[in-house]
Design brief:
This protein is an all-alpha fold. It is 71% helix and 0% strand.
């Protein structure tokens, strides 16, 4: 069932298992990070959050960006959280890959939205246009 070869063949079992674990882990990280961000409990760092030059150089900008965009980071996490295990139910005929790409697309779209909202809030907090 889980062999690879040509187009339309199922993805290798190891890849399916890896993705079914890694995607939900990333999703949980985003959900928890987004929650901490909107509660004002996410300190300035280089690992998770809305990391722009503006937010990394100012605590005020960091806080404003994350209060405004933290909920969007949490929303971003639900795509990979749900699609990781769901991908295991359809590992063949490209459906599994489509599910993975849908989850990643969901995540990236909401992360970009959080970045835009957060950057605007940071600029407003610092009085920049």
């Amino acid at each position: 069932m889980f062999r690879s070869g040509g187009a339309g063949d199922p993805m290798p079992w190891g890849m399916a298992v890896l993705l079914s674990i890694a995607l939900p882990a990333v999703g949980v990280l985003l959900i928890v990070g987004g929650r901490r961000a909107r509660e004002g409990r996410l300190r300035r760092n280089h690992f998770i959050g809305i990391r722009t030059t503006l937010t990394l150089n100012s605590d005020e900008a960091w806080d404003a960006a994350h209060l405004a965009g933290g909920h969007l980071l949490s929303v971003a996490g639900f795509g990979p959280l749900l699609t990781g295990p769901l991908m295991l139910t359809h590992p063949s005929n490209g459906v599994g890959a489509a599910i993975v790409f849908a989850g990643i697309g969901w995540m990236l779209g909401w992360i970009l939205a959080a970045g835009v909202v957060g950057t605007r809030a940071a600029e407003a907090a610092l009085g920049e246009d």
